[in-house]
Design brief:
The chain is of the alpha+beta class and 213 residues long. It has 2 domains: 2-84, D-amino Acid Aminotransferase, Chain A, domain 1, CATH 3.30.470.10; 91-212, D-amino Acid Aminotransferase, Chain A, domain 2 (Alpha-Beta Barrel). The chain has helices spanning 2-7, 30-44, 50-58, 116-123, 163-166, 171-178, 189-193, and strands spanning 14-22, 26-27, 66-73, 78-84, 91-101, 131-136, 141-144, 148-152, 158-160, 183-184, 197-202, 206-212.
């Protein structure tokens, strides 16, 4: 399946890593971001120079928090764009998306610019909603448009969906799995609706509190 997938990669496809630069601590989880980009580049057949990526990112200097977006094209060329990072809302309002994802869609497992479903969702976000939660055709929780999702079940256990349900292996998600804050398992829509607590997040913004819109 992966070899067929590689043949169908558009010429304008690029890989994306969005990370935070903090003047007090420097790059946040940069090593994990570059590891993920390297892995996707290998799977896609893109040239990837870790030395060049490190040089570009090491040149970032700022006395303010930055949103850093590093892209890699199929030609092996990097592009870095930085901008001031605006403070996140203290609570994000969430709702369910009506769009069903395919659990076996390999694009969902890689961070690229081929994300029309999510771009369309964010462009048409209902008033008063900050993030939409997606489910696959098996009614399993996947992710948000720009976040992974973490659910506290009735027994107090925190869980997050597996990649096989149809979600990105997010960097924040990886750190929470490694620290054993969350357990990976399929999460049903019923479990989400009856959850004791839900959090969403990504490496750029961290872990965010939510409420239903």
């Amino acid at each position: 399946m992966e070899s067929t997938f590689r043949k169908n990669i558009p010429n304008d496809c690029c890989l994306i890593e969005t990370f935070r630069f903090d003047p007090e601590v420097g790059h946040v989880h940069l090593n994990l971001h570059l590891n993920r980009m390297c892995d996707t580049a290998r799977r896609f057949g893109f040239r990837f120079s870790r030395r060049k990526a490190d040089e570009i990112c090491d040149a970032i200097v700022s006395d303010k928090a930055l949103r850093c977006r590093l892209t890699l094209g199929c030609d092996g060329e990097f592009n870095l764009v930085t901008q001031p990072l605006e403070p996140a809302k203290s609570i994000w309002r969430i709702a369910f998306s009506d769009v069903k994802l395919s659990h076996d869609d390999l694009w969902l497992r890689h961070k690229t610019n081929q994300r029309k479903i999510y771009d369309d969702a964010r462009s048409n976000m209902p008033n008063g909603v900050d993030e939409l939660l997606f489910f696959n055709q098996r009614e399993e929780l996947c992710e948000g448009t720009i976040t992974n999702v973490f659910v506290q079940l009735a027994n107090g256990t925190w869980v997050t969906p597996p990649i096989s349900s149809g979600c990105l292996p997010g960097v924040l998600r990886q750190t929470l799995i490694t620290s054993r804050f969350v357990t990976v398992r399929t999460v049903s829509q019923t479990e989400v609706s009856s959850a004791r607590q839900i959090k969403i997040g990504n490496s750029l913004r961290g872990l965010l509190d939510v409420e239903w819109a």
